[in-house]
Amino acid sequence: MLETLPLGVVALGGAIILGLAGYAGWLLAKLRQQTKMQEAAMNAAIKQRNLKIIESVDVIALATLQEQCDLSEAAIRLYMIMDHLQGEKRVDFPTRFPALYELYDVVKDMPRGDARKEIPKKERMRHDMHRVKAESRLQQAIHTELEEILAFTGAKITPVRTLAS
């Protein structure tokens, strides 16, 4: 069949195919470049977000070690905030910080703020006793974990120990 087609038509068809293949290659290269740029932008956004989260984590951990924040509140806040870390900073909180997670698990469903004011005094006292017992039992382990958190985040400020070691 090629013998019946003029050589010019075959050459033109080949040139068109080569041109389209070149264009497809160029589009593929642009797509790869765009994908790399999007990935770099996403990684930069994740890093920036993690830095903001880590800054909050450092403040809470330091305040707790300096007894400016109670252990239950710290456990709730740290668990909720650190759950949003991404990339290489992502942690399995229950495994890495078991004492903080245990306290979080004890107090997570207890009413707070205005909801706490609305429950009967007897129930409030029962919650308080349960919370205080857990805080007391886990205090030393939590303080150790708070220092581990500060080491993990690379905190620029080191805590001043308030507890007798």
Automatic annotation (TrEMBL):
Domain named DUF2489: residues: 17-148
Keywords assigned: Membrane, Transmembrane, Transmembrane helix
InterPro entries: DUF2489 (IPR019617)
Transmembrane keyword on record: yes
Transmembrane regions: 6-29
Full protein name: DUF2489 domain-containing protein
Species, as recorded: Enterovibrio qingdaonensis
